Amino acid sequence: MTVTVVVADDQPLMRGALRSCLESDPEIKVVGEAVNGAEAVRIVERLAPDVVVMDIGMPKMDGIAATRHITDVPGEHPTRVLLITTFDTDDNIIEALRAGASGFVVKDAPPEEIIRAVRLLAAGEALLSPSVTRRLLDLRAAALEPVLTSDDEALSGITSRERTVLEHVARAMSNADIAVAMDLAPSSVKTHVGHLLAKLGFTDRAQLVVFAYEHQLVRPRVRPPRHEAVPTGSGPDAMHSRWFGQMR
User: Could you tell me the pTM of the whole model?
Assistant: First the structure.
């Protein structure tokens, strides 16, 4: 089955690099390109792609505002949003997840990671890498103020088993890992995750991670993990060269 994608970035070279990267997979088709968030919203409304790969920092409407518009559109098969970010400088990634983004990748990610992210989101997996999300939340923990206490109304409809599943999700565990930890079938874990999403009114696991942190079900690490330095030459030209070099 072909995965349809819209690419949104205000830099032509970056859009071209993303298109070439994605279309190196025969099962991915880029059906549209946008130069800003407002155009991305219009294209998504017209074409209803499976995934939008979108930069956060764009003119007219940024990626966060565009994400909010895109994820507010009702439908049986909603368009998923994969945001492109510079890990060190995009402090708004928490707001992006709250807005409904299903995942994110850093701009210096290798082509296979971008492709894997798009395929996972299109399959409804909702998040490229829970471990990366948790790592970023740890680094940005100061921006996450507790919403309510852990026994608030939002948690009252969740069973004890669902709460345990939620805590594992927030600790970056996959369904398979959770199944082993809780001695459950993977299908049962998937069902519990589905119930959590429905009860809390979310669309994917990324929002579950943020919710768990906000409600103090998990705590940031005392020492945030050291993230890798961005390689010298991480702009669109370097990105274009590296992606094409790895695809040869």
Answer: 0.67
